[in-house]
Amino acid sequence: MKPRISLITLGVGDLPRSRAFYERLGFVVRPESTEDIVFLDMASGLVLALFPREKLAEDAHVDSTGSGFSGFTLAHNVASPEEVDAVLAEAVAAGATLQKPGQQVFWGGYSGYFADLDGFLWEVAYNPLMDLT
Questions:
Q1: So where are the chain's domains?
Q2: DSSP 79-99
Q3: Each residue of 22-44: pLDDT tens digit?
Q4: Cut 0.70: pTM above it
């Protein structure tokens, strides 16, 4: 297998509400989206998909009633600590919940977290070792 991720699908509780939330954050809806699934472009070439949680669980043959920490986060890296704070504020203004304000972190960078409308955790991070300019 050639290691690569081309699509991340989030099982959401209310597809139109989640679509509007991500559009408020600047995500662009791809033309192949339908009323049943939404595909969003990401700058890296990766695609973020939004799909009803129950249907996604059914497709994977698992129970849809999980709760608590899911064991993963999504990350959005930016070019400065100030940009971390700005992105967190933008997410909160769009309806997200601030989980952790931007702050210096143990690995030498600066990061914070927000939860989207379905509780998916997004880390917004500045890593001084990554050049994002």
A1: 7-60, 74-126
A2: SSHHHHHHHHHHHHHTT-EEE
A3: 999 999 999 999 999 999 998 87
A4: yes
